[in-house]
């Protein structure tokens, strides 16, 4: 049994590693744009990384989020609501209040923030927290559609994607744009896992194919072709698959343990990276540093690592509620977390 568990863990490390990659790309993108607003120009290296990864950064996030959703959709309703609705709602509203409160207390950010943002939080996601807002909506939609024919659900998702909905309201706009990738993760999970298995068994070919795929997607991102909806969709899927191949190979070589560690704790980072990221950027700019890439690198590094450190430091203290939902807010009693495994994750 131990050998089987070890094999299973080894085979699935790439999933957490891809989660880690997606959160780093998200943090890097927001940091680079923040630095650009502060310095008046986009960081050269991180600006290029953000542009090249733009077609698949969010698709990868939602595809990975859907990989294990099929099992979740079959859970008893009370357990499903607890893990896929109440869970995300708690952290969304908590950290929306924290982020808005911090911006109100420390004015001078990149955009004006007021109490109206807090009042609108139930219907208009605040900042990057729209990810956490969207996930439970996607899970709920798939729960309702779980018995519907797959071609019908996929057709609905594609129709929403190609509809180019642009209301100015984040929920329908981003939801319509991203739902197809979540559906793709749910229905395409067996194929994604097969690709990952093939990549590990054919490391050299998978590395070449993955690298060529990401390079091709990056080139497309630099052209006007990315504005064509069908090409944008294909680039998102191709870039995500390329990332899966490369990360799977790296994981099989034991090169992604740090990335898997990060991915398994992605929600810690996701809800809290904004504070150390912004603080680092502001301090370095005020100190007169003008190298945008250096500022971005330092901001991303601290934005990713400090939430993990903070979680470890406050665990079991009165502040533990920041990263762990209190028992009295759970619909079902939580099972003890596996040894060494976090009880909180963003996707999966």
Helices, by number, come to: 14
H and E string: HHHHHHHHHHHHHH
Helix content: over 70%
Chain-averaged pLDDT: 90
Count all strands and give the number.
0
Q: Termini separation (Å)?
A: 23 Å
- Which spans have pLDDT < 50 for at least 5 consecutive residues? 1-8
Computed structural class = mainly alpha
What form results from the Cα inertia axes? globular
Largest sheet: none
In angstroms, what is the radius of gyration? 20 Å
- How much of the polypeptide forms β-strand, as a percent range? under 5%
How would you describe this structure to a colleague?
With about 350 residues, the protein is an all-alpha fold. Helix content is about 75%, strand content about 0%. It contains 14 helices and no strands. It has helices at about 1-40, 45-65, 70-75, 75-105, 115-120, 130-145, 150-160, 170-200, 205-220, 230-250, 255-265, 265-270, 275-285, 290-315. Helix 13 packs across helix 14 (about 290-315). The longest helix has about 40 residues, at about 1-40. The radius of gyration is 20 Å and the shape is globular. The two termini are about 25 Å apart. Residues about 1-10 have low confidence and may be disordered.
């Amino acid at each position: 049994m131990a050998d089987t568990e070890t094999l299973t863990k080894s085979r699935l490390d790439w999933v957490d590693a891809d989660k880690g990659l997606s959160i780093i790309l998200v943090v890097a993108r927001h940091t680079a744009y923040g630095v650009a607003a502060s310095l008046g120009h986009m960081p050269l290296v991180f600006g290029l990384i953000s542009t090249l990864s733009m077609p698949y950064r969010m698709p990868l996030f939602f595809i990975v989020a859907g990989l294990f959703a099929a099992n979740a959709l079959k859970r008893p309703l009370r357990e499903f609501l607890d893990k896929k609705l109440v869970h995300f709602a708690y952290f969304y509203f908590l950290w929306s209040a924290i982020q808005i409160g911090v911006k109100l207390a420390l004015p001078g950010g990149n955009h004006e923030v007021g109490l109206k943002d807090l009042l609108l939080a139930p219907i208009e996601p605040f900042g990057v927290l729209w990810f956490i807002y969207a996930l439970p909506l996607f899970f709920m939609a798939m729960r309702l559609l779980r018995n519907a024919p797959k071609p019908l659900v996929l057709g609905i998702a594609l129709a929403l994607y190609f509809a180019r909905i642009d209301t100015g309201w984040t929920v329908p706009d981003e939801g319509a744009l991203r739902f197809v990738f979540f559906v793709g993760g749910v229905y395409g999970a067996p194929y994604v896992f097969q690709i990952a298995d093939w990549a590990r068994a054919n490391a050299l070919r998978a590395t070449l194919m993955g690298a060529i795929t990401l390079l091709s997607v990056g080139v497309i991102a630099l052209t006007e072709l990315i504005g064509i909806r069908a090409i944008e969709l294909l680039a998102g899927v191709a870039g995500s698959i390329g990332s899966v191949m490369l990360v799977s190979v790296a994981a099989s070589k034991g090169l992604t343990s740090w990335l898997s560690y990060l991915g398994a704790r992605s929600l810690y980072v996701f809800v809290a990276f904004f504070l150390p990221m912004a603080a680092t950027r502001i301090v370095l700019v005020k100190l007169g540093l003008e190298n945008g890439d250096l500022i971005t690198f330092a901001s991303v590094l601290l934005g990713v690592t400090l939430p993990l450190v903070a979680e470890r430091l406050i665990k079991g203290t009165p502040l533990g509620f920041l990263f762990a939902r209190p028992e009295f807010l759970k619909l079902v009693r939580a099972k003890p977390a596996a040894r060494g495994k976090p009880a909180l994750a963003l996707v999966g």
